[in-house]
Amino acid sequence: xxxxxxxxxxxxxxxxxxxxxxxxxxxxxxxxxxxxxxxxxxxxxxxxxxxxxxxxxxxxxxxxxxxxxxxxxxxxxxxxxxxxxxxxxxxxxxxxxxxxxxxxxxxxxxxxxxxxxxxxxxxxxxxxxxxxxxxxxxxxxxxxxxxxxxxxxxxxxxxxxxxxxxxxxxxxxxxxxxxxxxxxxxxxxxxxxxxxxxxxxxxxxxxxxxxxxxxxxxxxxxxxxxxxxxxxxxxxxxxxxxxxxxxxxxxxxxxxxxxxxxxxxxxxxxxxxxxxxxxxxxxxxxxxxxxxxxxxxxxxxxxxxxxxxxxxxxxxxxxxxxxxxxxxxxxxxxxxxxxxxxxxxxxxxxxxxxxxxxxxxxxxxxxxxxxxxxxxxxxxxxxxxxxxxxxxxxxxxxxxxxx
Length: 403
What we know:
By secondary structure, this protein is of the alpha/beta class. Helix content is 41%, strand content 15%. It contains 16 helices and 14 strands. It has helices at 17-20, 22-27, 56-66, 79-93, 108-119, 134-142, 163-170, 193-205, 229-232, 245-248, 264-272, 282-294, 296-320, 349-357, 365-368, 384-402; strands at 43-44, 102-105, 125-130, 146-151, 153-155, 158-160, 175-181, 209-213, 239-243, 257-261, 334-338, 359-360, 362-363, 375-379. It has a 7-stranded mixed sheet, sandwiched between helices. The protein has a 3-stranded antiparallel sheet with strand order 11-14-13. β8, α9 and β9 form a beta-alpha-beta unit. α3 (56-66) runs antiparallel to α12, α4 runs parallel beside α12 (282-294) and α7 (163-170) packs parallel to α8.
């Protein structure tokens, strides 16, 4: 490989949420709460960023932009950014969109908060499938609207959409928006074109808005393919697509995402209510443009490395924790592991593994909205040596608990 994904990078004293922000996010506490491990002893497998170095091509683009010497108020006025993004989408997904539909947000999460505010009245509802990304729920709570949950079904270890349940709940006249995660976080499913067409039929029948969070679209297993909802619904005006290079290239701290809004009226509303008044970080633009123009080889090698990480975890669990239910996901860099048969009496798995294994991870309904009891999510976007240490600690903690 050209790039070194085995490098261990010290992230202390970098204001990293991964290093310093786990207490309030996972455990809703501050530094006063003590755990059985010192902070520097934890294996961090929780938040959705990588322990890998950003590609040198992207780092160089940021340095080159700094060398232009002025970092004043910035907007995305360069045709080159749109061209780079369009080329990326066309080559990887056989999908393009009109330039006028593209606007920007500091992230998909702020966009979700704003879109729910724009589209859903206080007495109306949002529909999603669970388990779900926690911020789908938080966006609804922030706007004081109800989140309706349609639980995914598990068949032979694979999550499937319960279309009967989804259609029944979508027919509620108070439901205004379907919030779709495509590919799905945390299960890692890549929804098939047939599944997406079925979703599209339900959306169109009920005249719903659909917000398709596709931030994990690049992070798929080698030789698989993501299908954008925009390709399935080429003419549906009430579709909004959210994508970014941030998850793909470990740029979350750059705070920049692409929000593709077809409806001119909602696009205008979104822009008028933009708390950042259309401004963007100049270094973020440079980083994302470089990612789309120069990041293909880095991403291809990353995917191969992640493929091997998933195989390692699959084999480790099979050999050492056989009651854990896990299959290699089609997308994301997360392992979604059902520990229900392993630790049936432990209600708070993140707390158990923090205190007994020194491993920080997420799981359960409190962090994944619903249909997640007994499950944990492990971030595998890190050097394999760290994963090995984390899994061995998890095994040892389980063995001690069962004695």
